[in-house]
Records
---
Amino acid sequence: LHDSPFSDFLGFELLLEEQDRELLSRVRAFMTREVEPVINEHWTRGEFPHQLVPAIAELGIAGLAYDGPGCPARGALVDGMVAMELSRIDPSIGTFMGVHGGLAMGSIQLCGSEEQRERWLPAMARMELIGAFGLTEPDVGSAISMGLATTARRDGDGWVLNGEKKWIGNASFADLVIIWARDEDDGEVKGFVVEKGTEGMTFEVQQDKIALRVVQNSEIHLRDVHVPETHRLQGATSFASTSEVLRVTRMGVAWQAVGCARGAYEHAVRYTKAREQFGRPIASFQLVQDLLVKMLSNVTAGTAMNVRASQLQDAGLLRDEHASLCKVHSTVRMRETVGWAREVLGGNGILLEHHVGRFVADAEAIYSYEGTREINTLIVGRAITGESAFV
Ligand code: FAD
């Protein structure tokens, strides 16, 4: 079993090929050596560690699951485990990669033409171009399929976009922002690749977040933004196309949630072995062991569920309700697990220097983005009953 057998308890990583296990070890070493020592400072200041991007690019993990031009094409299982590995040390870095390598690259891979894939994906895989994904709006999140209000108007050879977006990760520094807008003519949602510096697109970075403070989320204002037809994702003809992207990236979020829980659990195990009370390590107390074992159960069950769903994804059999079930389960159990980890650290659990407090805070954002617990529950509910309970 692995160098960290106490958290990959059932040895899921042994399901990977040797080459992918090595990749996972490299990611783990990088995150432990380069990210963990500096991340709390960035979290406090709410700053993204741009200086780490070249080294992340070197890992070759952007768009790992996709088989488009220049993409690593290693499949969904290792992609998921890498997402877990990133978030195990820092959920903000996990989210940054989820947005760039999952949502933005996924939009081009799944909804772009062959020419568009050739044009953008190789540079995105090398992380020379960074992507963002603009779907959510200030007035509509969960009901975006119905309420999306950003408009796209045909104008000669191109399009004119108008509207507002909110919560868009990476947008303020991204080279390409995927903007989802409703065609004024046919009422369908379409995707557009808007390049950095395009006139009329401005950003306001959202301040004072209490979670994922390292991730830069922005409001985007779009005022008569001209986009050529070559930048309209040719395969995105309705909201169903957006949902195809979200189906696979939601699995990524389920893996991030297990990573967040796993990171907090590992800090908790180490702490309880080092901390002494009543003359003994607190790890020796039955009530403390009870919490550690419950945390490990959550992490292990979440991993098992996600492994199977990722295998379905690799086999082309993943359905919306599979990804939603994994997202609901992993995020609910994550929230429970990080809470228990904080509990066994006592007062130190709320000090940033012990890391667990950051996991507790960051879990709140992972819990809500890419479909809240309620929305993902309703997707599964609809699948098992045949009844839609959304409205
Ligand atoms: P609302 O939709 O207003 O929901 C509020 C509450 O009402 C929730 O509890 C919800 O479950 C509940 N609710 C709503 N409808 C129903 C219903 N029918 N039945 C029962 N309950 C219901 N978006 C992007 O496009 N790109 C990004 O990069 C991005 N990054 C994000 C990063 C962070 C840190 C966060 C917090 C969000 C991000 N988002 C992004 C947006 C995210 O996907 C939305 O926040 C999420 O979909 C929920 O939408 P909302 O916040 O508007 O909540």
---
Amino acid sequence: MTPNQCDIGLIGLAVMGENLVLNMESKGFSVAVFNRTTEVTDKFAAGRGRNKNIQPTRTMEEFVRALKRPRKAMIMVKAGAPVDAVINQLAPLLEKGDVIIDGGNSLFTDTQRRGKELEQSGIHFVGCGVSGGEEGALKGPSLMPGGSRESWEIIAPIFRKIAAQVEGEPCCRYMGPDGAGHYVKMVHNGIEYGDIQLICEAYAILKDIAGMDAPELAGTFAEWNKGELDSYLIEITSQIFRKIDPETGKPLVDVILDKAGQKGTGIWTLQSAIKQSIVISTINAAVEARVISSRKEERVEASKILPQPKVEKFEGDRAHLVDAVRDALYASKIVSYAQGMELLGTASTEYRWNLNLGDIATIWRGGCIIRAKFLNRIVEAYQRDPMLPNLLLDRYFTDIIERTQHNWRIAVSTAVLHGVAVPAFSASLAYFDSYRQARLSSRIKNRPKKRPHRKRQRRITRVNRVARPSRLPRQARGLPYLSESRATRFRRILRARAV
Ligand code: NBP
């Protein structure tokens, strides 16, 4: 192939990189590829990349020479130091106006730093969240690009085409400047953890209390997948229950190790939520559940020492319990997304990203692990009110909570009485029970404050008026202009509901 002919280049031919390259090529783009270990490149070129519009390269110089201007080079290597190592090799060979895209799970603050560093040489840097695992990468992922708008215009024709398509719409929209794309991907992963944990808890109640076996569980989840819970994760859960372990002949779910690991993004989401003072208790419960599950040996020992609850066999109405668990799952999921969306909205204000929450729900509808019918309801909620402070306040979601609330409590209390751990179900319910109350028990923590002397009070007020930066208009403080304060938004929601 002659130089400067490839539409895009990709560095890092592990599972995600290889599949993305094949996806790009299948959509009509020519792709140059490079990998630190040359044998990996050679193996790919001779195998899955054979007889395709793919150009293997063996040095970074050869890789850069293969690209059309403005050059578009995507990095798909392990997050952290490897990304910096690749950028340090690649950037000196690029020119002003070229674009580097980091498609790995990088920490958004690293993306902000890298973007600033590259800006000095006029090279665009895009931090792009890629969701959907290896299958998504091959067939169409959900893509969350962040960087300058100019860089988005350069990569958009390729990215919109390789993304998953839902109802003719690509699951890829511009998220916002600098670290916005990687931040959205990070929260997406946190939400994914929450979804998975909620499913685990539904399974625990149905199996350990209702006594359902694998075929019954498969049928129940398949049934749920026909309704409001229709989603990729519910669908694959129903399929998992049908898998048989070839060695023992038992259902796979009964023999598989109960130990879950985690990568950085769940913990980063929690750290960011603490920094922004946002409660994401469902995601928090999900991350902690993984931590406890990973201590298998310790749990085995503890189970021999600690007292087990003395519980009676469940004698209630099994069908009713199944309905209660389904409702608890849906209500808790709504709370989890309400928390995740609030975190995104707050970070957007803090970092001045101007995130569009409706767009984010739109691009999660396909390609990614959390794809679900329910995301359409979130899109509609933000169409009704783009400034919605909390999803629970949207009329559709309030109605769901009203309908499911009683069953939600039955599921959680039954689990507690039978000693089945449901940390994400109960954290979601506790969040709802706190958020819905005008007056909380926290008043006990507050000591009544002495009123200052009237003269001193006047002086404090005067000082505050002049010097407290929060008294200045938002724009004067360099914050993005918000048309409404949070309080005004609530008053408007209440007025609308009164009609
Ligand atoms: P890995 O995260 O396993 O990384 C392997 C790749 O990184 C190889 O190409 C390896 O080259 C390269 N690499 C390493 Br390690 N250190 C390097 C260095 N110092 N310089 C240059 N290259 C280096 O690959 P992956 O699972 O395909 O994931 C790629 C990215 O996508 C990650 O950030 C991941 O978090 C993210 N992601 C993964 C998934 C998923 O389902 N796997 C989903 C969504 C996002 P070598 O061959 O020479 O060792």
